[in-house]
User: What shape does this take?
Amino acid sequence: MKNIYEHFKKNPPLDANGNRKRGNSSQDGYWTGYDFPDRTPRGEAGSNVRLAWKAGKQAREDMSLIVYMLEQSKLNARYPD
Assistant: This one.
């Protein structure tokens, strides 16, 4: 693992039941990036909090793309050319 960004991209901060973990500033930063991508957290550029926020923001963008692709495939299945 090179940094917290790569770690959270592969392992979002969730507990064993799938609930969000908010035990430290990096975990809070991840969920802030996921829920509020335009709200930059405190911390210097390159800090763990900023990298975690960036990972959360990217996860939301990735999820939006996945949802869009699923919706398109459902539409294509319903209305084939």
Q: What stands out?
A: The mean pLDDT is 86. Residues 48-78 form the longest helix (31 residues). The chain has one domain: 4-78. The CA atoms of residues 21 and 81 lie 45 Å apart.
